[in-house]
Amino acid sequence: MNETKPIRVLIVDDEERFRATTSAILKKRGFDVTAVGSGIEAIDEIKKRPLDVVVLDVKMPGMDGNEALREIKKIKSGLQVIMLTGHGTMKSALEGLREGVFDYLAKPCDIDVLARKIQSAYAKEKGISAEEPRVRDVMVPLSSFSTVHEDSTVREAIEVILRSFQTIMTTTTVHESLHRSTLILDKKDKVIGVLSFTDLLEGLQPPYMRLMKDRPMFADSIHIEPLNYSGMFTIMARDLAKKKVRELMSEAPPTIDAGANIMEAASRLVSLRVRRLLVMERDKAIGVVREQDLFFEMANIIKERIEQ
């Protein structure tokens, strides 16, 4: 994404919950977002301030998306517009494409896909050459991840994770990929580890079961009847809640420079057998690039090739 100035996005949708949730998520991704609830408001906003990309719902009361699109193009013909609909109206989609829509996405849409479409639309609007993106262009900013400090308890960490679930579940019309790991920070807010669901499940295991994992030769000498598991999950979960996050966390992901080519990121993910890399810029962590981020970039390239 543009390093010096965030991409200015206007979201136009009559669903208040969609506007609020999508705006919040995109802002966390570094976009400058304004949201309005009607085509009339969108026209007024475009007249008032410069914008880079418009995300426009097709079906709205009053002035619908296609009518609003025509008015937008009269005001600023080069402004890139991404059309959204939850109604599967191909006729409306084709009408929109004839009017010069950059792309057309059906609701519910994944936020990763929407973010990449906005970036691509911005590149077209600014006439930026279509060279391969760098890691900083496809990463998820650090602000999008849940974070806790190493001296927090597991109970506190779980509360943070649950809040992130609640944010994602506040709407049925936008999907955000739930990050499977929470980032762990030290007292200087430096990323020193991650806490994953697997880490939490491993923390539930009583000492003798961890011994079986670490020393397989003991496994044959220890036999647990199914009945002996009764109540164990509850007991261990309550005990786990009191522990410090540092006792359970895994190491921080391997790092990669923000300016690195995405092929280098793909190679590191494969060679190191990891699912994410910590993105660094001037010795500071600024984001995380995950395997799904590279998947969406790959899918976008293949889709563009098919459509040519």
TrEMBL record:
Pfam families per UniProt: CBS, Response_reg
Sites bearing 4-aspartylphosphate, chain numbering: D57
A GO molecular-function descriptor: phosphorelay response regulator activity
Keywords: CBS domain, DNA-binding, Phosphoprotein
Transmembrane portions of the chain: none
UniProt entry tagged with the keyword DNA-binding: yes
SUPFAM superfamilies xref list: CBS-domain pair, CheY-like
Domain CBS, first and last residues per copy: 139-211, 249-304
Annotated ranges, domain Response regulatory: 8-122
GO biological process annotation, one example: regulation of DNA-templated transcription
Record-linked PANTHER family: KDP OPERON TRANSCRIPTIONAL REGULATORY PROTEIN KDPE, REGULATOR OF RPOS
Gene Ontology CC, one term: cytosol
Protein name: Response regulator
